[in-house]
Amino acid sequence: MNFNFINLQPYSNPQYFIWLLIALIPMVIGLYNGRRFKTYEAIFSLVFLFLIFDGTHWQQGINLILYLIYEFIVTFAYAHYRTKKGSPNKTWIFYIAVILAILPLTAVKVLTVMPVGTVPFVVGFLGISYITFKNVQVIMETRDGAIKKIEPGTYARFLLFFPTISSGPIDRYRRFKKDFDKVPSREDYITDLQYAVRYLFQGFLYKFILGWFFGTYWLPKISQAALIVGNGVGGLKLSWWVLAYMYCYSMYLFFDFAGYSLFAVSISYFMGIHTPMNFNKPFISKNIKDFWNRWHMTLSFWFRDYIYMRFTFFAMKKKLFKNRIRLSQVSYFLLFLIMGFW
Description:
There is one protein chain. The protein has helices at residues 14-32, 38-53, 58-83, 91-111, 128-144, 152-159, 173-181, 186-232, 240-270, 288-292, 297-318, 324-341. The chain has 342 residues and is mostly helical. The chain has two domains: 3-183, no CATH class; 187-341, no CATH class. Helix 8 runs antiparallel to helix 9 and helix 11 packs across helix 12.
């Protein structure tokens, strides 16, 4: 048997959903009857991770394993330092831990812009950004004292939670652990199943119907019309067709990504994990701030909580800026600069 043909990328084809829903049945039965089969869940997750990273993606799988070993060393070394009795909680050690945690992701971003052929070994893999965000969050909350103890098994499940591994949503360790350690009552789990089925079919509608309609059916036609009109006036200029292309592409991005996120949330609910939603009707936003709080919310809130707010508190504590408006401006500039580099 040629195992190269069983590679299954998340939520990309019917075969993936068929195998996924079949594999979920024992977990659904267990949770419905008040039991969480943690060993089965671990095996289940590892099998689907293998299916994601096998075949032509085997190098990414090796990179993922090496990355996890590295991040475990960094995180647990810092956690040991931070939680030991009488720890001085030095800021510079915290900074080193964060820098080391983001080093692999930084290397990936730098190496991807280097000329082809100059990089003998690619360190990236599917989902490295979102796993890094999770890891940095744990280090920061360990520094704050919000996380008193990191359980290795739960931490590994948190980082490798396969429904969200490739593109989020980005969960928080304490929230994930609370769900994982608790077995929902039958009434609560029936409600979870209702949401899971709803989000699953909504995801199909978004990604495979509306996303296809805007991205595959309409977008090429509008693009061609915009080029024809542009060529008729001496080059591509602002026109109704260009405006239509902008909106059509935006709708395609939304329905494709929101559909993926709904699949991730749906599978999480089947597993008794309440992964947060990623989108909340962004196109009805009243202003850019409102849009920011509705589009890819888990990413926006992550950058808000761990970049913007922390820099703002640091600057206020050190009295770097006397004017609060200037402080806000610098904080926003730093926030969007880091997001731009990412």
